[in-house]
Specification:
By secondary structure, this protein is mainly α. It has one domain. It is 83% helix and 0% strand. It contains 9 helices and no strands. The chain has helices spanning 3-29, 41-70, 79-101, 106-115, 117-134, 138-144, 146-152, 154-169, 175-219. Bound molecules: protoporphyrin IX containing FE.
């Protein structure tokens, strides 16, 4: 993939694509073409943003495995944008709740965050996302060095917290959060495989094939 194609075509196209869910909400909000947000527009807006926040978190987590599986190194250049869109949608989800649902009624907000476990978990995920968004620039990457990678590993916990939060607020049909969980486990499982299992297997294979050689060398 040429850097020019990536910068001039792929990135702007992806940016526009990522904005589509937001545009769809605005489209319905303003009733363009007779589209509506249904009987409970605030809940619909909040749910849409929450769903897309979680989807973008998982899409961001999918970049590294997809790069490995399809040898598509260029995909890594899209990861930051996808991660920032995850933050954008989660923030919109939170602001919809804070402003439209809670009406900035702070004591109610505080009570919900501290007393309703699924909201506590969602809020924790949002709080953890903030340092990742703030340090997503190339400058911060350089400044933090190796610590940047460790910090950004928080995204694994954030995705699991987001899924837990979703699972907990669903009343009956838990299939969708469980599908998200299965996807997250595959994506995180691949990383665990790469970090621990594959090197151990390589070491064992090398030891097995190296043992006779060493024995031969010793007897020479
Ligand atoms: C990483 C962070 C978060 C993610 C990924 C996330 C995702 C989601 C998802 C997928 C849903 C279910 C939507 C549906 O039913 O279709 C949801 C619901 C909800 N979330 Fe979050 N959320 C996050 C953070 C937050 C925060 C910070 C708050 C508020 C402090 C919050 C408040 C809520 C509420 C109140 C609902 C239920 C809405 C309803 O009544 O349908 N979430 N969230």
């Amino acid at each position: 993939m040429s850097p020019l194609l990536l910068r001039r075509v792929i990135k702007p196209a992806l940016f526009a694509l990522c904005l589509l869910p937001f545009a769809a909400v605005l489209w319905r909000l303003f009733g363009i073409g007779g589209a509506t947000l249904g009987a409970n527009p605030i809940e619909r807006i909040q749910d849409t943003f929450g769903q897309w926040g979680l989807r973008f978190l998982l899409i961001t987590l999918a970049v590294t495995p997809l790069r490995d599986w399809f040898h598509a190194v260029w995909l890594i250049h899209l990861r930051r944008m996808l991660g920032l869109f995850a933050f954008f949608y989660v923030l919109m989800h939170f602001l919809t709740w804070l402003i439209l649902d809670q009406g900035l009624y702070w004591s109610g907000v505080l009570e919900d965050i501290t007393r309703r476990p699924f909201i506590t978990i969602g809020f924790a995920a949002l709080v953890l996302l903030v340092p990742l968004a703030v340090t997503s620039t190339h400058g911060m990457m350089r400044r933090l060095g190796r610590r940047w990678k460790s910090l950004h590993r928080l995204v694994y916990a954030i995705a699991l917290l987001g899924i837990w939060h979703y699972y907990w607020q669903v009343k009956a049909d838990v299939r969708e959060p469980l599908i998200y969980l299965a996807i997250a486990l595959v994506l995180l499982g691949w990383r665990a495989w790469k970090a621990w299992v594959a090197p151990a297997l390589r070491r064992r294979t090398a030891a097995a094939s190296g043992a006779p050689l060493q024995a031969r060398r010793a007897s020479e």
